[in-house]
Specification:
Helix 3 crosses helix 5. It contains five helices and five strands; from the N terminus they run βαβαβαβααβ. With about 140 residues, it is an alpha/beta fold. The protein has one domain: Rossmann fold, CATH 3.40.50. The relative contact order is 0.23. It is globular. Strand 2, helix 2 and strand 3 form a beta-alpha-beta unit. About 5% of the residues have low confidence.
């Protein structure tokens, strides 16, 4: 049985480079693309007592639509390399969700981009790539 590679995509140049790396470095692998919608990161809870559930749902729907478009674009990139990639769209905390998808799909390897944060930005916002690397039970390749 061949290798199964998970490639998280978020629309960044780094994620696209990670996809290209996976397609070229492991051309015979089964590729699964995952995009994680993190609704909390883009919806402010501020100090207001009022929560507009309708606006929240509308924004979540828009993020899912953008995620589907991104996955389709990445699937087309894989197809151009002669690979039929599977896609997964999930909602949740990105690092945890990537690890859950990896486990559920029994992947052998995760290839992902690094946004290149350092210093204060990394401390304040964390690093999805770093969290996945620390907690994954399979090898993780970070592409810069």
């Amino acid at each position: 049985m061949g290798q199964h590679v998970l490639v998280p995509v978020d629309g960044s140049e780094e994620a696209e480079e990670a996809l290209e790396y996976a397609l070229e470095d492991v051309p015979d692998a089964k590729i699964t693309l995952v995009h994680v919608v993190n609704p909390v990161s883009s919806f402010s809870y501020g100090g207001d007592d009022y929560f507009d559930a309708e606006a929240y749902q509308e924004q979540l729907d828009q993020q899912h639509a953008r995620g589907e478009e991104l996955l389709e674009k990445c699937r087309d990139i894989a197809k151009a390399h002669g690979i039929e990639a599977e896609t997964v769209l999930e909602t949740g905390k990105p690092s945890e969700t990537i690890l859950e998808v990896a486990e559920a799909n029994e992947v052998d390897h995760i290839v992902m981009g690094s946004r290149g944060r350092s210093g204060v930005g990394r401390v304040l916002f964390g690093s999805v790539a770093e969290a996945v690397t620390r907690r994954a039970s399979v090898p993780v390749t970070i592409v810069r």
